[in-house]
Amino acid sequence: MDPAISRRKFFEKVAGGLWGGALAGLLQADGTMPRAPHFEGKAKSVIFFFMEGGPSQLDLFDPKPGLNRWAGQPLPPELSKFYGSKLAFAQPNAAVLPSPRVFRKWGQSGTEISDWMPHTAAMADDICLVRSMHTDAFNHHPGQLLLFSGTMQFGRPSMGAWVTYGLGSESRNLPGFVVLASGRGTSGGVTNWTNGFLPSLYQGVVFRNSGDPILYLSNPGRLSRETQRATLDALRELNERHMESTGELDIASRIESYELAFRMQMAAPDLLDFGQESPATRAAYGVDEGPTRAFGTNCLLARRMVERGVRYVMLAHASWDDHSELDKKLKTNCEITDKPVGALLRDLKQRGLLDSTLVVWCGEFGRTPMVEHRRGQKPEMAGRDHHPFAYSLWLAGGGIKGGQVIGRTDEFCMRIEEDPVHVHDLQATILHCLGFDHTRLTYRHLGRDFRLTDIHGNVVKKMLA
After folding, report:
1. Percentage of the residues of the chain whose pLDDT score is greater than 90
2. Among 119, 434, 167, 106, which residue's Cα sits nearest to residue 310?
3. Could you tell me the residue range of the domain that residue 229 belongs to?
4. Which listed site, 200, 225, 431, 440, has its alpha carbon 20 to 30 Å from 459?
5. Residues 95, 96, 100, 104, Cα dihedral to 10°
6. How far apart are CA 61 and CA 413, in angstroms?
C-alpha cells in the first residue's frame, strides 16, 4: 500500500481492476461466441417467417366447408355474444363469409391445405400444422409484442434476442440475430427484434437484400483496411479507458459492435454472392422473377446465413392485414411467398440442415369467419377482421414432428375445441427445441428475473419429434 495515495485514487484503482475484469469477461463471452444450452437441443438455429398482419387461416390452413350453409347470415346468437366487443372493426352480427378456396389433402399425412399454397403444401409431411393457436391481443402492435417479447409491454427483449443471449452464435463474422424484411414494413417495427434490457449486441441486425447489406457498412473509397484497423484499435483503447473510469458495461457491447462490423465487411460480400448458387437453386427460390424476387432473395439469404452459423433469422413480410379485397390481396401474398418458402424447406432438407434448423411460419393472429365491409366498398371488396381466438401456424424441422395437425376449431373456426396452444406455449416449445427450459432462461433486471414466457407457458409435447 502506498501511504501517499489518496482515498479517491485507491478506489479508482480498485474499480479499474474490477471493470477491466468485467470487460474481459464480457468480450470473451459475447454474443458472437457459442454457448451450451440447458440440455442437448435438436435445433441449432431458427428461421422465423413472420407474416405480419394476420394471414387468414380460413383461406389457407383450416377448411370450413360448413360455412357455406351460413353464407350471408349472421352467426348464431351465442357465438355473436362470444365475440361481443372483442373485434377491432367488424360487428359481431356481421354476415358469415365462406372461403372460396379449394382445399386438398397433401402428402402421406393427408394434411389439408389451400390451393394457393401448393409449394408449402408439397412439404406437408415435414410440417406440423397447428390449428388451435390463440393470443390475448386483437390489434397488431400488441399482438406482435406478445408474440416476440412475451408481453404487451414495451422494453422487453424479443425472441431472437433471447435465443442469441442463450446460445450465442456460431458465426464470428455475422450477427447472431438477423432480420430480413419485405413488403411495406411491420407495424411493430424494431420492437419485434429489439434487445430490450439485454446488452445491445443481442438486438436483431436488419439486412438489405441488395447493395450494402447494412447501410454505411462499406468504407469510403480512400480509406484503406489498414487505416481502418488502426482507427478501430485506437477507438477500442479509448472505449476501454472510458469503461474503466465510468463502469458502464454497455461500452463492452459497443466495442464488440465495432469489431463485428469490421469482420462483416469481409463476410458480407461472400454472403450476397448468389453466383455460387446453381441456376436450378435460383429458379427454385424465384430470385430472378418479379413477384418472388425480394422475398425469394431473403429466403436464399436465410439458408446461406444458417449455413454460416447465424443463430436466428427473422423474415418479415407485410402485410396480410386484409380488411378489404381479401381474395386479391391474399392471392398476391401467396404468389410472393409460397414458392420461396417451399424452396427453402426443400433446400434445407436436401442439405441435411432441416433437422438442425427450426422453421416457424405465423402471424400475430388470424381472421374472422364474418365479412368486414368498409364504408363505400363494393361487396366483392370484402375482407375479414382480426381474430385472436383461434388461428393457424406451422413449424418444421429442428425437433418438430412433421406430417401432423394439432388442434381443432369449431365449424365456424371461431373457438378452439381441442388442444389449445397459447403464444407462451409456442415460445416455450421453440426454446425447448433449442435445448432450453424456458423457466430457467432468465435475465435479472430491476431486481427480479425476467424470461421470454413471462410467468406462463408449457411445452407442447405433441409437437416434438
Report:
1. 68
2. 167
3. 221-271
4. 200
5. 180
6. 11
**Tens digits of per-residue pLDDT, 149-196?**
999 999 999 999 999 999 999 988 899 999 999 988 788 899 999 999
Q: Residues 47, 195: one domain?
A: yes
**Residue 156 zone, left/alpha/beta (φ > 0; ψ -120 to 50; rest):** beta
User: Positive or negative CA dihedral for 283, 288, 292, 298?
Assistant: positive
The predicted pLDDT at position 249 comes to 66
Q: Do 338 and 253 share a structural domain?
A: no
- Asked if 289 and 190 sit in the same domain, the reply is yes
Of the candidates 326, 363, 321, which has an alpha carbon nearest to the alpha carbon of residue 133?
Answer: 363
What pLDDT was estimated at residue 323?
94
Task: Report the distance separating Cα 230 and Cα 224, nearest Å.
Answer: 10
The pLDDT tens digits for 216-227 are 566 666 777 777
Q: Are 314 and 204 in contact (CB under 8 A)?
A: yes
The rounded distance, in Å, linking the Cα atoms of 63 and 414 is: 12
Average pLDDT over residues 25-29: 45
Given its phi and psi angles, is residue 326 left (phi above 0), alpha (psi -120 to 50 degrees) or beta?
alpha
308 and 347 together in one domain? yes
With residue 437 as reference, give the H or E element that holds it. none
Q: Tens of pLDDT along 244-258? A: 777 776 777 677 666
Whether residue 156 sits in one domain with residue 56: yes
Taking the alpha carbons at both ends of the chain, their separation in whole angstroms is 63
Q: Residue 1 falls within a domain, yes or no?
A: no
**3-class DSSP state for residue 331?**
helix
Residue 63's pLDDT is 98
Domain CATH for 437 = 3.40.720
DSSP string, 91-102: -TTPBB----PP
Distances (CA, A) of 458 to 30, 349, 402, 415: 29, 28, 20, 20
Q: How many domains are there within the chain?
A: 2
Specify the DSSP class assigned to residue 320. Answer: -
Residue type, 17: G
What is the helix (H) or strand (E) element at residue 3, kind and residue range? none
